[in-house]
């Protein structure tokens, strides 16, 4: 499983179809999430945090492919302190990683209590998921990888103390490669939301890190700003 080549696929008509939907969904979700530090894991050429207003926003990847990134790091051992990040977005990060459980555990470690995580992925229970099963080209993107269903992801979240907060499915057209056919199947997007809402090719889910029985006392604004400045120094050292 590797995310290599996925950036190139996103430039194709089918990739643009998926990317445009996911970018709009991210813009809607991250706009109303507040804090000081936000991190995007993988796909650094695309800014899924652009609508967020936190003062410090980082794009982090492991260096396996070309793309703008402020931080290069092993995603299984992120260079951020525990309880230091308010928001983490993971565009297709888990399904293309050999050890997604460890990545998610790291995300839980670095998130503050009540911090948010947003995950996008391909839905195995969709027309695209069916094509992946039948395709002889599973070594090529976007079929390479382990598609995670939303119920399975919800179970993983629950084990780590996350609570699912919001989610959506999208891209109901078949997995065709030509733009003219994607346009012809556009009617399925409107119909899909109404008639088969869980069968979209891709999904986006938002979860919150809960710590039950713990009273959350947030630091003062000056304390959070000092911690945010320290975080900048740490990430700059890692990147050098």
TrEMBL record:
One of its GO terms (molecular function) is S-adenosylmethionine-dependent methyltransferase activity. SUPFAM superfamilies: S-adenosyl-L-methionine-dependent methyltransferases (SSF53335). It comes from the Bacteria. Residues 71-119 form the Methyltransferase type domain. InterPro entries: Methyltransf_11 (IPR013216), SAM-dependent_MTases_sf (IPR029063). Keywords: Transferase. This is Methyl-transferase. Pfam families: Methyltransf_11. It comes from Sulfuritalea hydrogenivorans sk43H.
């Amino acid at each position: 499983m590797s995310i290599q080549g996925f950036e190139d696929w996103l430039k194709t008509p089918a990739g643009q179809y998926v990317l445009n939907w996911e970018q709009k969904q991210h813009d809607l979700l991250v706009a109303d999430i507040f804090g000081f530090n936000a991190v995007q894991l993988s796909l650094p050429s695309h800014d899924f945090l652009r609508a967020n207003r936190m003062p410090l926003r980082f794009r982090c990847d492991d260096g396996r492919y070309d793309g703008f990134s402020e931080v290069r790091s092993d995603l299984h051992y992120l260079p951020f302190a525990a309880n230091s990040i308010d928001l983490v977005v993971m565009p297709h990060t888990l399904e293309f990683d050999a050890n997604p459980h460890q990545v998610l555990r790291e995300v839980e470690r670095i998130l503050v209590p009540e911090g948010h995580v947003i995950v996008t992925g391909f839905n195995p229970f969709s027309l695209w998921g069916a094509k992946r099963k039948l395709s002889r080209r599973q070594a090529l993107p976007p079929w390479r990888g382990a598609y995670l269903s939303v119920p399975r992801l919800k179970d993983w979240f629950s084990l780590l103390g996350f609570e699912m907060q919001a989610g959506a499915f999208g891209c109901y057209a078949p997995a065709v490669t030509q733009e003219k056919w994607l346009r012809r199947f556009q009617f399925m997007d409107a119909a899909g939301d109404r008639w088969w809402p869980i069968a979209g090719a891709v999904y986006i889910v938002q979860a919150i890190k809960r710590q039950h029985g713990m009273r959350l006392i947030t630091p003062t604004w000056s304390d959070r700003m000092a911690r945010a400045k320290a975080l900048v120094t740490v990430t700059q050292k890692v990147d050098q």
